[in-house]
Amino acid sequence: MGVRKPEDTRSFALCAHGGAGKTSLAEAMLFDNGNITRMGNVQNGNTVSDFQSEEQKRNISISTSLLTLERKGKTFYVLDAPGYADFTGEMSAAIRVADTAVILVSSVGGIEVQTSKAWEYAEHHNAPVSFVISKMDRENADFEKVLADIKGQFSQNALPVLLPIGSADKFTGVVDVLKGKAYTYKPDGSGKFTEGEIPADLADERESAHEALVEAAVEMDDELMEKYLEGETISEADFERTLKKAIASKRIMPVFALSSTANIGVPQFMDFVADYFPSPVDIGAVEALDGDKKVTVEPKTDAPFSALCFKVMADAFVGKLSFMRVYSGSLSSEGSNIYNVNKGEDERISSFKIMTGKDGKDVKEVIAGDIVAIPKLQSARVGHTLATKGGFSAQFPAIEFPKPVYSVAVIAKTRADEDKLGNAISRILEEDCSLTFEKNAETRDNVLSGMGDMHINIVLSKMKERYNVDLDTKTPQVPYRETIRKMSEAQGKHKKQSGGHGQYGDVYIRYRPLERGAGFEFIDSVVGGAVPRNFIPAVEKGLREYMTSGPLAGFPVVDFSAELYYGSYHDVDSSEMSFKLATRLSFRKGIMDANPVLLEPVMDVEVTVPDQFMGDVMGDFNSRRGRVMGMEGHGKLQVVKAQVPLAEMFRYATDLRSMTSGEGSFSMEYSHYEEVPGEIAKKVIAAHKKEDEDEE
To answer: Which of 74, 395, 437, 459 is the most buried (most CB within 10 A)?
Structure first.
């Protein structure tokens, strides 16, 4: 790749709601730049970005892919991020490591839920933003309306730099606002165009758009601003310099009109990226933490080497690939080691790969600003900081991923599947940070949790295809609890005589309810040696053991105190086991006498939906025994906050998608336990007792 400098790097993440055309734009860029000789399309499953079998089968992006290309002496690192809610964590990670977020908005569909999510992530990471109004060749395409919506919902700093010539079947080209030229395209998708004068009906619009760009750009320089206000001409060099600064600082968010599938406007978009998008040097330093101390990391090649691993992928031919963004320094692959700061491990590296989809090209050196993959790196996980040993000891902040909202219990179909499950799931978890897997100690379920049913189905398909692990699924059991509502006292007396030493233990225990969330408290109030000191720990141990399976329905008993206040013993026949068994008798009777009740976990739920679905969402919460806690408006979107029992939420990701035509999204986390209504509790208790009988 020749002698390179960070100033010549352009990295950007393509983000959008699913179906807005990110992968098609990536494909058109590769074609127009000469990297590929034929343009694939998503429907045929032959694009460079969507190379995984599941992506080709479903015609959607499910994982961020990296494309690398050279244009006008600049290296482009293009991160094509998924647009479906199930894979929103991939979008967040892509924006985190890119220098610019390019948000595509369909000229037909307009702003959708994941469009807003992309904007939120860009705001969170303070990334410069550009908008592409896509699909200008489609029926009902409306550039002006979508531009107005972008300005209204996101920022007035969204300013057009490519205007459309016509729309729908009359979309024939674009007007370059900066150059004052029109580019008319052949209607054959070849990307070939002719340069000409701006159509008369667009002259005023171009002039107005140019004026807006100049005004915003000169605000970056007081001296230029003064010249401009005094009517002096701003030189082209000064304008271009301040325009770059304005884009890097988000004072200007360039807006492009184009069509990827018709291949109109894409070359002009790429030229603008090369000329005006910020480089790592324009973005400036980032922060890392060395213990409690903040460290400034400058994008300089002579600084110590540092990088962040943002993605891990299992490749069928190469093996494991660890993708990293280099933030400072340079590193050669020849005879070098790379140091994992998080784990304190040093590994030899064989090569760096410049990736274009699934294809990698080996390079010997990487520098600040590069986004590359390292094969067969064993220790690196997503979010780990990579450096050279002794050169850089700080850590970059971890990459934030959304919490899972959809869970299934997985069951291995055969013993062989069960034996392979652990290894397969650990490898999948390395790749996918929005996925969790846990063995629930209470319900004994193996619970796989992700962002939706599509996400989980794809994971199960991967496990079968890659690791030959076949799994069935079922709805996970709810981790109910039991507690008590009043005080009770119960004696437990265990007495057994069967030749030789007998067994004798006798306890009197007082049970009291505690406030929700208090857990368990053991109180020793024995006086006068009614229970010898050496047997009292056996009573507490017995209580802690027996409370894991309550007398109501076998669920753990919580939020109560047990006070041992009296008992008796036998000099010869008493033992720790005798007192444990006596405790069990007291516990079963005492809890049943204390008005036991079933508790269920209640979740805090936040749902983001367009206005028109508010009524459906509210009504649905009522049917799920939910309580709406509040609402907030965000433009055309509403955020509904509610508390809903977990038992009612296992299918919510699927139901919400169906209810809102895919436009709703939600997050969920545990809030507290509360009593299960009587009629529902009866059904739960009956069902679990039947389960126990069946097992017997």
So the answer is: 459
3-state secondary structure (DSSP) of residue 569: coil
How far apart are alpha carbons 406 and 456 in whole angstroms? 8
Average pLDDT value over all residues in the chain:
92
Q: Half-sphere exposure of residue 378, counting CA atoms within 13 Å on the CB side?
A: 6
What pLDDT is recorded for position 53? 73
Pairing mode, strands 253-257 and 129-134: parallel
How far is the C-alpha of 410 from the C-alpha of 64, rounded, in Å? 26
Report whether pLDDT(316) > 70: no
User: How far is it, in rounded angstroms, from Cα 551 to Cα 553?
Assistant: 6
Taking residue 233's Cβ as centre, other Cβ atoms within 10 Å add up to: 9
In the prediction, which pLDDT does 610 show? Answer: 85
CB neighbour burial string for 465-483, b if at least 16 within 10 angstroms, e if fewer? eebebebebeebbbbbbbb
Between the two ends of the chain, the Cα-to-Cα distance in Å is 70
* pLDDT tens digits, one per residue of 177-207: 999 999 999 999 999 999 999 999 999 999 9
User: Which segments of 33-167 does DSSP mark as H helices, in order?
Assistant: 53-58, 88-97, 113-124, 143-153
Q: Which residue has the tokens 């509210």?
A: 618
Check residue 506 and report its DSSP letter.
Answer: E
In 3D, which of 484, 502, 619, 504 has the Cα closest to residue 547?
484
Q: How confident is the model at residue 1 (pLDDT cuts 50, 70, 90)?
A: very low
What percent of the chain has a predicted confidence (pLDDT) above 70? Answer: 98
DSSP character for 557? B
Per-residue pLDDT tens over the stretch 442-479: 788 999 999 888 899 999 998 998 899 999 999 999 99
Helices of type H across 449-598:
453-467, 536-546, 576-593
Whether 576 shows a pLDDT value over 60: the answer reads: yes
For 262-310, write each residue's pLDDT tens digit.
999 999 999 999 999 999 999 999 999 998 899 999 999 999 999 999 9
Tell me the β-bridge partners of 491: 508
pLDDT above 90 for 611: no
DSSP annotation of 676 reads P
Tell me which residue has tokens 């400034």.
296
Q: Strands, DSSP E only, in 422-526? A: 436-439, 446-450, 471-474, 481-484, 488-496, 503-513, 520-524
Phi, psi of 96 (to 5 degrees): -60, -40
Res. 15: pLDDT tops 70: yes
Tokens of 122: 């860009």
Separation between Cα atoms, residue 659 and residue 654, nearest integer Å: 9
| Of 23-37, 52-66, 384-398, minimum mean pLDDT range | 52-66
Output the CA–CA distances (angstroms, integers) from residue 656 to 59, 186, 459, 519, 625, in the order listed: 22, 43, 21, 35, 16
Q: Which helix (H) or strand (E) holds 269?
A: helix 266-276
Query: What distance in Å separates the CA atoms of residue 423 and residue 190, rounded to the nearest whole number?
Result: 47
For residues 312 and 101, is the Cβ–Cβ distance under 8 A? no
- Nearby residues of 30 by Cβ (< 8 Å), 6 or more positions away: 36, 39, 48, 67, 69, 356
Give the residue-averaged pLDDT of 101-124. 93
Helix, strand, coil percent values for the chain (each to nearest 5): 30, 35, 35
DSSP letter for each residue of 372-433: EEEET-SS--TT-EEE-TTT---BPPPPP-PPP-EEEEEEESSHHHHHHHHHHHHHHHHH-T
Residues in the chain: 696
Could you tell me what percent of the chain has a pLDDT over 90?
A: 73
Using the 8-state DSSP alphabet, how is residue 364 labeled?
S
Token pair of 555, please? 């669920």
Q: What are phi and psi of 28, to 5 degrees?
A: -65, -35
